[in-house]
């Protein structure tokens, strides 16, 4: 048995991949190395990474600045517990996050994944109201079509009917849902939709601790875009009815939509904000939950005057050092111009697909390009077609999409467009899944 065959056999028998059965039924591609925007497979093929490793590797792979940040920090320490201790990388990163996020976000709680950042946000909101003498305010409110992670409390605010999270109905907290926001980033705000929110919130305000939404882009729940005006409306309604507002910027933060944070499209700020994914440029797992001074001080005045949460790898110095370097690298460049260039390239590359048989919709915002099909994607056929065209994509549900690294050149952007078209044709040819 060859080395490659042995590795893949062990992978199939032992390694449980995301959203897959055990043992595995589909043989994954074996990656040997990555550099720039390319993945080098063990068999010698190279693929343009159209996914930025699930939207995280905004600077691509083996970036010399981030590599040096890792080496430099390794010379000091790779990890130290955060209970009773602190260190410069965490302090510097918290300072930078407070500087670049809007007021009134002033305090930073570090964790090690986006789902946990949402768990922490929910815990902050619930504990805020316990500390305020309102323990009855213990539900979260959101719109349908959202996605906030795969751990238990985040699953409770994901779309209750779409996806596999419906498996856990009865085990999760029952949250308050309203209809998904009207689609279209450039569409005018629907006053009737906000009125529906106002009426629902008026009915549930006494039991709702916080509203939680993904601003502007609903990511893994369907890759839909909505007007930033709905964020303005939610901010006003939250203030009017005395509930907190949480923005989940894990997928949208650090420039992906053309603003540093998607909330900036509306020029509003939440009480609590979650960031992750691109925080470390895709190098290490790290996330953060930021909150206002009002939230922090209310919790600290309560019967349990601490936020009872403490991940083992909280504020990991190695991840913090790389995250700080990643943010500084982003801000030192014309990242706005690069994201705008990618948006232009994706619009050009995907525009013709709207008329392709089997395609329902084509949409682009910032460094996000989405092709929605009439039927669920044939994952095997679509992936194989993209790989044949030298591009790595990971379709899901009825979507073939790309969120490439910001360093992706124009030629590679064009290749991604060609690969998406080929993937759509291949899926349509099999009748979807």
Automatic annotation (TrEMBL):
Signal peptide: none annotated. GO terms for molecular function: adenosylmethionine-8-amino-7-oxononanoate transaminase activity. Substrate binds at residues 54, 147, 277, 310, 394. It is found in: Cytoplasm. The modification N6-(pyridoxal phosphate)lysine is found at residue 277. SUPFAM superfamilies: PLP-dependent transferases. The record marks 19 as: Participates in the substrate recognition with KAPA and in a stacking interaction with the adenine ring of SAM. The keyword S-adenosyl-L-methionine applies. NCBIfam families: bioA, PRK05964.1. This is Adenosylmethionine-8-amino-7-oxononanoate aminotransferase. It comes from Jatrophihabitans lederbergiae.
């Amino acid at each position: 048995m060859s080395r490659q065959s042995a590795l893949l056999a062990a992978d199939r028998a032992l390694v449980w991949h995301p959203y897959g059965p055990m043992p595995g039924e589909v043989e994954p591609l074996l990656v040997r190395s990555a550099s720039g925007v390319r993945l080098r497979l063990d068999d010698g093929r190279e693929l343009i990474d159209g996914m930025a490793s699930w939207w995280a590797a905004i600077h691509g792979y083996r970036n010399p600045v981030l590599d040096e940040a890792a080496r430099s920090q390794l010379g000091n320490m790779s990890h130290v517990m955060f209970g009773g201790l602190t260190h410069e990388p965490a302090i510097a990163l918290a300072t930078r996050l407070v500087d670049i996020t809007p007021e009134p976000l002033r305090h930073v709680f570090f964790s090690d994944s986006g789902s946990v950042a949402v768990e922490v946000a929910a815990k902050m909101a619930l504990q805020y109201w316990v500390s305020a003498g309102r323990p009855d305010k213990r539900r979260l409110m959101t719109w349908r079509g959202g996605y906030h992670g795969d751990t238990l409390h985040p699953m409770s605010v994901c779309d209750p009917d779409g996806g596999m999270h419906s498996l856990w109905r009865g085990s999760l907290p029952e949250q308050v849902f309203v209809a998904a926001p009207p689609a279209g980033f450039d569409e005018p705000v629907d006053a009737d939709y906000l009125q529906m929110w106002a009426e629902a919130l008026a009915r549930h305000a006494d039991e709702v601790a916080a509203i939680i939404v993904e601003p502007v882009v609903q990511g893994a729940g369907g890759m839909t875009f909505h007007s930033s005006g709905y964020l303005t409306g939610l901010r006003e309604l939250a203030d009017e009815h005395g509930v907190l507002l949480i923005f989940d910027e894990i997928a949208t933060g650090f420039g992906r939509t053309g603003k540093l944070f998607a909330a900036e499209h509306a020029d509003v700020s939440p009480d609590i904000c979650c960031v992750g994914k691109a925080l470390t440029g895709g190098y290490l797992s790290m996330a953060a939950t930021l909150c206002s001074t009002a939230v922090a001080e209310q919790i600290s005045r309560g019967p349990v005057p601490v936020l009872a949460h403490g991940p083992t790898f909280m504020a990991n110095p190695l991840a913090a050092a790389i995250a700080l370097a990643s943010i500084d690298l982003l801000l030192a460049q014309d990242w706005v111009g690069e994201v705008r260039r990618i948006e232009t390239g994706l619009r050009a590359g995907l525009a013709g697909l709207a008329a392709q048989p089997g395609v329902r919709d084509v949409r682009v915002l910032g460094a996000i390009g989405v092709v929605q099909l009439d039927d669920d994607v044939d994952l095997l056929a679509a992936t194989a077609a993209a790989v044949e065209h030298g591009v790595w994509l990971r379709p899901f549900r009825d979507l073939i999409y790309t969120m490439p690294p910001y360093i992706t050149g124009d030629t590679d952007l064009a290749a991604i467009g060609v690969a998406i078209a080929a993937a759509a044709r291949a899926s349509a040819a099999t009748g979807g899944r």
